[in-house]
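Quick one, T. Sequence first:
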Amino acid sequence: MQIISDKWRNLWSYNEVRVLVLASLALQIGLIFLAPLRKRSTNQFLALTLWIFYLTADYVATLAIGNVLSKQNEVTVQCGGSGTNPCELTALWAPFLLLHLGGPDTITSYSIEDNELWWRHLLGLVVQVSSAAFVFLQSPPNHELWITTILMFIPGLIKFIERTLALRSGSKDNLKDKIISELGPRNDFKVDYAFTSSDISEDERELILEGYYWFGIFKRLLVDVTFSPNQLMQSQNRFSKVRTREAHKLAAIELSFLYDTLHTKAVQIHCIIGCVVRCFSLISIIAALVTFHHLDKHTYAPADIIITYILFGAGLSLEVIAAVILLFSD
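Structure tokens:
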């Protein structure tokens, strides 16, 4: 006796890739909006939910790419064996799944230990990019669709590389090397902005600048690098005179910078190269959307067309939203 009838089996088999792609997109949306809340909340339910989303997102996207690849040869039979395959549009979804595997800007790792596994993520990058490329090469020859797929493949690859670099930059060895390289000849940080009592202001911008300055000093504790005597004396003098409320604000700002450094793509975005790459990625997605919109789509399944437009719209929106959240986060 079968628990699941053949009708439901066939229905799931036909729509499996669609469900997985939409599920992957839903998980990305959840990560983008839940991740910033974790920085300011100790709610255990929120932490558990984010942890589930974080782990599930990669599994679902990886599973979806595998399903697209495994069904690549079955699609022609399912769609009637016609020369023009109405199901070939699923090959375009592989770059979107790479985009999902790259993860949102608001979270790259859930814990510090995840950063130490950046080599494993690099291996995953090679495997998943190869799988997506194989899906593309196996797809039926449609030059217009190929152009759209290539245009989407570029931002997908960029996002995946960004996440790998973010994990590497948050690893202990890389942090230590970077911090040591920032030390001057007298074991002191090379900074252009020095704070004295006359520099302290209630203005929020000044407070953030000072918080960033102290973050540059105190982050050395993460990698067991000691302070210089001057820095130790400077911090003692500063925090012995500051009001409790202002000290708490400074500590919160420092912790916010620390969180962004360890668990987001802030380091990759807050630089000239990062901004240029991000703009190029957005332009590539827009160009892919334009080329897809002008395709002759009458041979494709209506459900696949709708899902593809959803992926394009969500991809553009989430890229902009995630960047704005990270750039203007506290």
